[in-house]
Amino acid sequence: MGQKVNLKVSNYRFEKIKFRNLIPIFLFYSFGILSNYIFTVLVVKILDIEAWGIFATFLAYFQIASKLTLFGMDTTLLKLISEYLALKKFSEIKEIYKKIIFLSISFSFLTILFFQILKNSFLFQKVNFGGNFFLVLPFYNQLLLNAEFIRAFEDTYLYLIFRQFGIYILSIIIFLILLKAQKSLYIPEISYSLAIIILFFISTIYVFRYLKNLKSCKTLDKSEITYSFILNLSFSLFISSLFVTFNNWIDIIILSTFRTHKEVGIYNIFQKVSCLINLPLNIVNIFIVPKFAKLWAKNRKRELIKLATNVTKFILIISILITLIFLMSYKYILIFFLKNHIDNNYNFFSFFILVFTYLINVAFGNVGYILKITSYQNFYRNVMLLSTLVNVILNIILVPIFGILGASISFFIYTALWNILCSYKIKQIFKYSIIGEVIKIR
């Protein structure tokens, strides 16, 4: 029998989570993670660590550009469609999707124009713009929006295909095909870009099927769903999500500016391996965030925070087990990826810092998501602004001196800071501390 967590408030059982149902999702998500790592190993083994450093630098700029053009509308789409589904406002779903798609396409082309103008400037000297890979940006943004649309309908497996491992599965196939023609350091970017375009078309077909099956409602008032309404709602979400993405990649950008592509590649692989500790949290977030939004829409606040606490307890146990595995076998794991590229002890210390950082992030739970889907997204935005400033300053000071170690220390301080501040706010709002309950601090 699968373990069940029964949550009660005033003797009212409001939610059951069958954790045995998470096993297929865990395996599916793990397969996606595996495809990502296979792609990494192929690039490093066939082309060398420098090629991966170039690709990681490209991804850093590309992901930040994507967040700029999406303007927080991916999270807005998930939030609104989840709420409209709960309230059975099907016509509103069609209207909001249509308008968000129009805004996203418009912003994407403006951003492409911006990057084309500045591609030869000193800001992007170490980024490969020669192949115009940023032209794929509109396709990537639409793919992300389609994935969040599907996520709102709680089609977890389809969401994972489009949002996570589908890109890397196709990238591997295209990468191996292109290698037969020519070995180039930029084949990873080409493979990644072509995979995005293919998945965009497939995901669009699925979204249109969902829209076709929704029943129309004649009571739709289009005056309630305006472009200004979408942008106002998205703005705070945009700022906070931009800060998160920026912080996830700022260390790569600064490393690529002051150090070598080899160091960028090593650090990025450290991140890839250590972030496996976040794997249980990422899997649960896929299906739990829409449930948070629905509970909030129905004003079931107490149920929301208790659900978040019980889920955090469960995933923390798994993350601790993963951490113990890393501590016992870290040399074998890193040598498999990097062979002779990690000959300094400080490199191992950098890896340990990243491992501990991700474990702390799991222990705090879904604090960021909870603030984003409620009416406290402005507070979350301000927290991310402060944390970003701290992270940038630390990276600029530490990376030129300590390299990978400096980037790891900066990431640890940034992660601890925003989690502590968000957790404190949630305790003020709900009179309840997730991490306090998880580790039994009163």
Gist of the model:
The protein has 16 helices and two strands. It has 442 residues and is an all-alpha fold. It has one domain (4-438).
Describe this structure in words.
Helix content is 79%, strand content 3%. It has helices at residues 22-47, 49-70, 73-87, 90-118, 137-152, 156-179, 187-213, 227-258, 261-274, 279-297, 301-338, 345-364, 367-373, 377-402, 404-430, 434-438; strands at 4-9, 12-18. A two-stranded antiparallel ribbon has the order 1-2. α10 (279-297) runs antiparallel to α11. Mean pLDDT is 82; it is low at 1-17.
Helix-strand category = mainly alpha
Count of separate DSSP helical elements: 16
Describe the strand arrangement of the main beta sheet, using strand numbers.
Answer: 1-2
What gap, in angstroms, lies between the N and C termini? 33 Å
* Mean residue pLDDT: 82
Pattern of helices and strands: EEHHHHHHHHHHHHHHHH
Q: What fraction, in percent, of the residue positions are helical?
A: over 70%
Shape: globular
Question: Keywords, please?
Answer:
442 residues, mainly alpha, two-stranded antiparallel sheet, 16 helices, 3% strand, disordered N terminus
Secondary structure elements and pairings:
Blueprint lengths: L3 E6 L2 E7 L3 H26 L1 H22 L2 H15 L2 H29 L18 H16 L3 H24 L7 H27 L13 H32 L2 H14 L4 H19 L3 H38 L6 H20 L2 H7 L3 H26 L1 H27 L3 H5 L4
Antiparallel strand pairs: 1-2
